[in-house]
Amino acid sequence: IVNAGGDLYASSVPGQPLWQVGIQHPRQREQLIARLPVANMAVATSGDYERYFIHNGQRYSHLINPATGYPANGCQSVTIMASRGFWADALATAVFVMGPQEGMALVEQLDDVEAMVIDAAGIEHLSSGFTLYHSPWLSTGVTDLPLPIAPLPSH
């Protein structure tokens, strides 16, 4: 595994066990929301829970929406799985700023890219292929209750 500030690439050879990558819960620091079995792919997460401040009860993250000049606020966390690390990192930030609906629509148009978005209300949105890697009921073993899962948007 190559870890570059939280974004990582997990390499493997055939016959070796898959790496298990834990995704931190954006509001419960000691819990995972997913454990992903990965090999030969990158995983990157952008969120509002590591670099932020709270002013008058409102959370302000470091991720700025260029259209408004204000912090993006439609998501708590976005995790992207992709073939390349730079692609996963760029997409995690872009999808976070775009928000769950528009961001997930972008992900669904891209080959070999999957996403898990936790929206501002704490609801988990999964891209169509993400469930191949993640089962909220079985994969974590860390939390008793997974986040609610939003239905996939119809195309």
Which features does this protein show?
disordered C terminus, alpha+beta, 6-stranded antiparallel sheet, 155 residues, 10 strands, two-stranded antiparallel ribbon
Explained architecture:
The protein is of the alpha+beta class. The chain is 15% helix and 34% strand. A six-stranded antiparallel beta sheet has the order 1-2-5-8-9-10, covered by helices on one side. A two-stranded antiparallel ribbon has the order 3-4. α1 runs antiparallel to α2 (100-109). The chain is globular, with a radius of gyration of 15 Å.
Write the layout of secondary structure elements.
Blueprint: E1 2-4, E2 7-10, E3 19-24, E4 32-38, E5 41-47, E6 52-55, E7 58-61, E8 75-82, H1 85-98, H2 100-109, E9 113-119, E10 124-126
Antiparallel strand pairs: 1-2, 2-5, 3-4, 5-8, 6-7, 8-9, 9-10
- Main sheet: strands, sense, barrel: 6 strands, antiparallel
Structural class: alpha+beta
Shape descriptor? globular
What pattern of helices and strands is seen along the backbone?
EEEEEEEEHHEE
| Straight-line N-to-C gap | 36 Å
Q: Considering DSSP H and I runs of 4 or more, what fraction of the residues is helical? A: 10-25%
